[in-house]
TrEMBL record:
InterPro entries: 5'-Nucleotdase_C, 5'-Nucleotdase_C_sf, 5_nucleotidase/apyrase, Calcineurin-like_PHP, Metallo-depent_PP-like. It comes from the Bacteria. GO terms for cellular component: outer membrane-bounded periplasmic space. Residues 1-28 form the signal peptide. GO terms for molecular function: 5'-nucleotidase activity; nucleotide binding; UDP-sugar diphosphatase activity. This is 5'-nucleotidase. Keywords: Hydrolase, Nucleotide-binding, Signal. Belongs to the 5'-nucleotidase family. Residues 36-280 form the Calcineurin-like phosphoesterase domain. PANTHER family: 5'-NUCLEOTIDASE, 5'-NUCLEOTIDASE-RELATED. Its EC number is 3.1.3.5. Coiled coil: none annotated. Residues 361-527 form the 5'-Nucleotidase C-terminal domain.
Length: 563
């Protein structure tokens, strides 16, 4: 509370300086002031270039390019910088992170953000995964309870975490609502807002004593204060997002959702809205309540895109000239020279994490292979789906499904590592099988939608062929399919927990974020509602292996094929 009060006091001084400027007459007919805003969202500690689908960006023409990696991102930020530039994050910088960051309490990620000169960040739901006190430690520094594991000391973020709608139970602010940065001599107000439904996606223990209010009300209140202080150019870092129906980084093919509603309703005083949370890519223009255009933009996740907004600011009014705002998403390609300072930080984190690789996480009685039976069922696929269901039971999950392309190797009984006994599963073994660091998400589907998901396992191709992608399923789900039935009508029966699935029934289904984003053609999974985030798939897998020692290949009795 004391350190927060100090930050609030410092903010008051900064805002007062902005207010003082209101009395300074501007020169007539001055040219607009160019200010560039660069933002990212949902970085999730991806210091190394992310692999698989998590490390690719789909372009408007349907092709994709590899993207991401902190050292590449740092270079792109530097190349994008102009004379007047501010750098922001829309939240979820940490949490659900790969080993090289998570092993060190995500301190390397905070250091990375310091290195690239971040000016402010919204608080995302994953910032609170480890509780409010850990968020304060990330902000102000100090070692974790088990000591400083990455460096001898941890100084914390050099930029403020913002949450205008986050309070304590007594109504007092639990974080700075906004900050003011100066660029080109102009004050720029920055408001941070996490989703109001944060309690539904975060452990109750982690946010005990905290409340989250309506996003629009919080934005409008902060915008009014900034306006009265003479801050006319205002940016919102919104940790809430919408889904899309395909499209490239600079398309606007969003499905109507909470972010769009907030962007349309928020105060006309707001000039730009950077979005996050949904891990989607879009570059939209929305109309504010006064009829003026403003960008609503999100840059996918894991550092694959940088959202860039170029403002023209009237030096007389110190407000953005809306009609001259230009926004785009920039792909963080890997064809640039990695920033040496950030690369050294990443290399240190990766090297120091290496000893974890040979840590035993479980034991097996024989090979558990990824190869599928004629029905489409895979022994290893069964295990992974069971692990994902067990990991998300607390979110009410009833069923889990896994994409077969995400299973990258077999789980072999014979050891390939000196000193590791046969039958021992190491962390490295598990990582090789589940390397993509996808995040598990639990969503609600109707029975009809669940059937439609299973029907999408057979996908007609332009050449007349049918591509088969058999989802791997948890033991709670059983179904029968007919090989002779037409595509779209092959599923003949489905049960969940032994009970027939009804079309209008409601079922909580877990899948990774690749699938819930419509990956591998499973577009129906994008229709799920009430999405709740979970663990990284690898973490769920290793936890399951640890809890089920001497694991044997499960019987292949979940999927039945008929003529």
């Amino acid at each position: 509370m004391i350190v927060l009060a100090r930050r609030l006091g410092a903010l008051a001084v900064t805002a007062a300086a902005a207010l003082t400027l209101t009395g300074v007459p501007a020169q007539a007919a001055q040219a607009p002031i160019d200010v560039r805003l660069i933002a990212f969202n949902d970085f999730h500690g991806n210091l190394e270039p992310p692999a698989g689908s998590s490390g690719r960006v789909t372009l408007s023409d349907g092709t994709s390019v590899v993207a991401g990696g902190a050292a590449y991102m740092a270079t792109h930020v530097q190349q994008l910088r102009t004379k007047n530039t501010l750098v922001f994050s829309a939240g979820d910088n940490v949490g659900a992170s790969p080993l090289a960051s998570a092993l060190f309490h995500d301190e390397p990620t905070i250091d990375f953000m310091n290195d690239i000169g971040v000016n402010a960040s919204a608080i995302g739901n994953h910032e609170l995964d480890k509780g409010y006190q850990e968020l304060l430690r990330k902000q102000f520094g100090g070692c974790a309870s088990d000591g400083c594991q990455f460096e001898k000391s941890f100084k914390g973020a050099k930029w403020p975490y913002l949450a205008a709608n986050m309070t304590f139970d007594n109504g007092l602010p639990a974080a700075l609502p906004f900050t003011v940065d100066f660029s080109g001599g102009v004050p720029v107000g920055v408001i941070g807002v996490p989703l109001k439904d944060l309690p539904s996606v975060t452990s109750a223990d982690a946010i005990k004593g905290l409340k989250f209010g309506d996003e629009v009300q919080a934005i409008n209140k902060s915008a009014d204060v900034l306006d009265k202080l003479g801050v006319k150019t205002i940016v919102v870092l919104l940790h809430q997002g919408d889904n899309t129906e395909g499209g490239g980084p600079n398309d606007c093919r969003t499905t109507p959702g909470p972010a769009l509603a907030i962007a349309k309703a928020a105060s006309p005083k707001v000039d730009v809205i950077f979005s996050g949370h949904s891990h989607q890519q879009y570059d939209c223009t929305v109309t504010d309540p006064a009829g003026n255009p403003r960008p609503l933009i999100q840059g996918a996740s894991f550092g694959r895109l940088l959202s860039v907004v170029d403002l023209k600011i009237d030096p007389r009014t110190r407000d953005a000239i809306r009609g001259q705002t230009v926004a785009h998403n920039e792909v963080v390609t890997r064809d640039v020279t990695p920033d040496p300072t950030v690369q050294a930080l990443v290399s240190k984190a990766v090297t120091e994490a290496a000893p974890i690789a040979n840590k035993p996480v479980g034991t097996i009685t024989s090979d558990i292979v990824a190869a599928q039976q004629p029905s489409g069922e895979s022994p290893l696929g069964d295990v992974i789906a069971d692990a994902q269901l067990e990991s998300t039971k607390s979110a009410g999950a009833q069923v889990a499904v896994m994409n077969p392309g995400g299973i990258r190797a077999d789980l072999n009984f014979k050891s390939s590592t000196a000193g590791v006994p046969d039958g021992t599963v190491t962390y490295a073994n598990a990582f090789t099988i589940q390397p993509f660091a996808n995040i598990l998400q639990t969503e609600t589907l109707t029975g009809a939608q669940l059937k439609a998901v299973l029907e999408q396992q057979w996908q007609p191709q332009p050449n007349g062929s049918v591509q088969t992608k058999m989802l791997q399923i948890s033991s709670s789900l059983h179904y029968t399919w007919s090989a002779s039935a037409p595509v779209g009508s092959r599923i003949t029966s489905i049960t969940v927990a032994g009970q027939p699935v009804t079309p209008d029934g409601s079922y909580k289904v877990t899948a990774n974020n690749f699938l819930t984003g419509g990956g591998d053609g499973f577009t129906v999974l994008k229709q799920g509602t009430g999405i709740v985030g979970g663990a990284i798939d690898l973490d769920a897998f290793t936890a399951y292996l640890t809890a089920h020692q001497n694991l044997a290949p499960p019987a292949a009795d979940r999927i039945t094929q008929t003529p």
